[in-house]
């Protein structure tokens, strides 16, 4: 018997978009379960505890995508499941709400199927075939944690030595491999050399600020798919929206708790909160 395919729920009330997404993801080897609204998606998730991810639209009848995510994050089942949100209604409120709920990826309609596949695979910790190899053939195999997950490498960028040490200590104690940099220019070089699984960066830094770093990371084919979380004391709506526009995937406002930091990191890396 062959290996069971990973299941993904696609919640979308437009049947044409449903079928396009279904066809594209089936070609990637996934099994697709279709729902036309949030309530059907919840039911499918309850009936299929082995579902690995959800792709959902925002605007749907009976239960919207945001309501679906909020229900899952608060009450389950599987509150930590990676979620990719699709929407033509990318208002400030929707983007901020999605960020607050811990959406792993946000894709604006109309979107390319290639971009959808890239983002989904990235969300699930999978590389796409078009990327250069992560390591040379002579490099040692990835280090594994006790729960058999590959140990994720995180690049932390902040010009404050204190903040840098706090984040480094918090993530190291949570089982991550942490590398650090105190400015954006150095961080860009490290990102290209180390190919981290995630970048956490402050905004205000010497030589190159965090938003410029986001843009530079997105320009390079070798680094453009690395998720980025901004960690900043600047927490107004305009700051969050500007960061998302410049290439960030998430935003954490200082001061933050260790618990929230780890939760957000695990969410964006598609890791279970129990590990």
Strand-helix topology:
Blueprint lengths: L6 E5 L3 H13 L3 E5 L2 H10 L3 E7 L7 H11 L7 E5 L4 H9 L4 E4 L4 H11 L29 E5 L3 H13 L3 E5 L2 H11 L3 E4 L8 H10 L8 E5 L4 H9 L4 E4 L4 H12 L6
Parallel strand pairs: 1-2, 1-3, 3-4, 4-5, 6-7, 6-8, 8-9, 9-10
Report what the structure shows.
This protein has 275 residues and is of the alpha/beta class. The chain has helices spanning 15-27, 38-47, 65-75, 92-100, 113-123, 161-173, 184-194, 210-219, 237-245, 258-269; strands spanning 7-11, 31-35, 51-57, 83-87, 105-108, 153-157, 177-181, 198-201, 228-232, 250-253. Strand 1, helix 1 (15-27) and strand 2 form a beta-alpha-beta unit. Helix 2 packs parallel to helix 3. The radius of gyration is 18 Å and the shape is globular.
**What is the tally of helical segments?**
10
Can you summarize the main beta sheet?
A: 5 strands, parallel
Task: Return Rg in Å.
Answer: 18 Å
Seen as an oligomer or otherwise, the chain set is: single chain
Strand content: 15-25%
Uncertain segments are 128-149
Q: What number is the mean pLDDT?
A: 83
> How many DSSP-defined strands?
10
Query: Shape from CA axes?
Result: globular
Strand ordering within the main sheet: 2-1-3-4-5
State the separation between the terminal residues, measured CA to CA. 30 Å
Structural class: alpha/beta
* Helix content class: 25-40%
- The secondary-structure element order is EHEHEHEHEHEHEHEHEHEH
Provide tags for this entry.
10 strands; 40% helix; five-stranded parallel β-sheet; 10 helices; 275 residues
